[in-house]
Write a structure and sequence with these properties.
The complex is a heterodimer of chains A (about 110) and B (about 110). With about 110 residues, chain A is mostly beta strands. Chain A is built from no helices and 12 strands. In chain A, strands 2, 5, 6, 10, 11 and 12 form a 6-stranded mixed sheet that branches. Chain A is globular and about 40 Å long. With about 110 residues, chain B is an all-beta fold. Chain B is built from no helices and 11 strands. In chain B, strands 2, 4, 5, 6, 9, 10 and 11 form a 7-stranded mixed sheet that branches. Chain B has a 4-stranded antiparallel sheet with strand order 1-3-8-7, with no helix packed on it. Classes of the chains: A mainly beta (about 110), B mainly beta (about 110). At the A-B interface, strand 5 and strand 6 of A face strand 5 and strand 10 of B.
Chain lengths: ~110, ~110
């Protein structure tokens, strides 16, 4: 069985500071990894995903995540956050069995 | 615009009542999913369907039922057997249901018990 652990439930940071949201997964088989973002009272939107190839993946709004197989991690980073990045972030894993497993989420709060 | 719509945005259920949540997509996706989201928890899969007239139970199917009579539609019924139905319900779809695909989510329905 696979599992996804998001190590921080809440991350408060000041505007323009760097941030890292941590995600670890466990799986006995190859996984595909995703980060989704959820704004209040809305559905989830894909931020970025790792399928294969380069272990560093980037989103269009400045986030990046690095797949680390030896540490079974897929941490999300941004060098300088904005107020508008305040949201809940979910890490998810899929295997070829098809179903997704989601972490419990990390609430990022960016303060002015 | 292509996307997923869910209705209603808020739904109130009385004791012993069945209620149905609507999910419609115009993305021409084969696979559709229902998730339940509780505060401080991730998404838990209720049911999913990869083709019309076929669906499978997810991790928390008890007290819920679905149908998939049309490709575009995947309604979820919360039955009276679901003793703790208060939650945020999210519908999603993906192209075929394969593992590496992005899931596209609707805006959600918040179900409250009176």
């Amino acid at each position: 069985a696979q599992s996804v652990t998001q190590l921080d439930s809440q991350v408060p940071v000041f505007e323009e500071a760097p941030v890292e949201l941590r995600c670890n997964y466990s799986s006995s088989v190859s996984v595909y990894l995703f980060w989704y973002v959820q704004y209040p009272n809305q559905g989830l939107q894909l931020l970025l995903k790792y399928l294969s190839g380069s272990t560093l993946v980037e989103s269009i709004n400045g986030f990046e995540a690095e797949f680390n197989k030896s540490q079974t991690s897929f941490h999300l980073r941004k060098p300088s956050v904005h107020i508008s990045d305040t949201a809940e972030y979910f890490c998810a894993a899929n295997t070829n069995a098809g179903k997704s497993t989601f972490g419990d989420g990390t609430t990022l709060t960016v303060k002015p | 615009d292509g996307g997923i719509t869910q209705s209603p945005k808020y739904l109130f259920r009385k004791e012993g009542q069945n209620v149905t949540l609507s999910c419609e997509q115009n993305l021409n996706h084969d696979a559709m999913y229902w998730y339940r989201q509780d505060p401080g928890q991730g998404l838990r899969l209720i049911y999913y369907s990869q083709i019309v007239n076929d669906f499978q139970k997810g991790d928390i199917a008890e007290g819920y039922s679905v149908s998939r009579e049309k490709k575009e539609s995947f309604p979820l019924t919360v039955t009276s057997a679901q003793k703790n139905p208060t939650a945020f319900y999210l519908c999603a779809s993906s192209t075929t249901g394969s593992a590496g695909e992005t899931q596209y989510f609707g805006p959600g329905t918040r179900l409250l018990v009176l």
